[in-house]
Every structure is written in C-alpha cells, then in structure tokens.
Design a protein that fits this description.
2 domains, 1 helix, 3-stranded antiparallel beta sheet, about 130 residues, mainly beta, Jelly Rolls
C-alpha cells in the first residue's frame, strides 16, 4: 500500500521463475481490476495505474494466488512526481484466514469463484487478511 502524486504508477517486481500471478489493484479504496499477469524471471516494470487525475492517490496491490513468487522492489513514477512520505494508516482490526488451497487462491481460474478469496471479504470489512493453506 502506498500513496503517490501523479497520473501513473508502475511497480518494479522481481521473480524467481517465469510464471503467472493474479493480483488485485485497488486505487483510492476501490478495486479497479483483477488481473492475471505473466511475470518473467528477473526484474521488470508492471503498470498499476495510468490516466489518473494529477493529484495524490492511494494504491494497494493484493496478491490473490499462492503460486507465482515475486518481490516488490519499488515503484516508478512520472518525472517530477514522488511517493507520499507519510504512509497510509494501518487498519485498527486484523483477521487471519486459515483454510485449504481454495482459500489460498488455487481455484481463482474458475469463474464461480471470482471475488471469493479471503482478501475480498477483508477489503469489504476494512481489515487485513492473510490466507494460509494447511
């Protein structure tokens, strides 16, 4: 989660394999898209937001699936723009979800499971979420 000034934002991600990951991108507290993106070995830049109004925005990246290991290395912004130095406030409540592979996102490719992961509920309830498979 980060705040930034400007009209666009890219994430610099590093992966250990060539794989796909499914992420949700939340702009200014609204889920704008759920996306399956190919992620390549090494580091690369991935579009998170473009065409926004030139003002301060909040963005969140939520990984929906257990597969596809990657690391967020940083953000790229347009020239003259930067991240807000004051991070967003943390939620007052936290909730951990324990479950099977479905909770960890393994079945997200099936349409009947769209927006059924633990994080979806957490966003609606304004709490943090973690999906752990057992």
């Amino acid at each position: 989660q980060a705040k930034f000034n400007g009209t666009s934002l890219y994430a610099i991600l590093s992966a250990t394999t060539n794989d796909y990951i499914r992420i949700n991108i939340i702009e200014d507290d609204a889920v704008v898209r759920s996306e399956k993106i190919p992620i390549a070995y090494g580091s690369d830049s991935y579009e998170l937001a473009t065409g926004l109004e030139d003002k301060t925005h909040k963005i969140e990246i939520v990984k929906e699936t257990a597969f596809g290991r990657w690391t967020l290395l940083g953000f790229e912004l347009e020239d003259g723009k930067d991240l807000d130095p004051d991070p967003p406030a943390r939620p007052g409540r936290k909730l951990v979800f324990y479950g099977d592979s479905n909770l960890a996102g393994d079945s997200l490719e099936h349409e009947q499971n769209k927006n059924q992961s633990g994080w979806s509920l957490a966003v609606k309830m304004q709490i943090c979420a973690a999906g752990l498979s057992i």
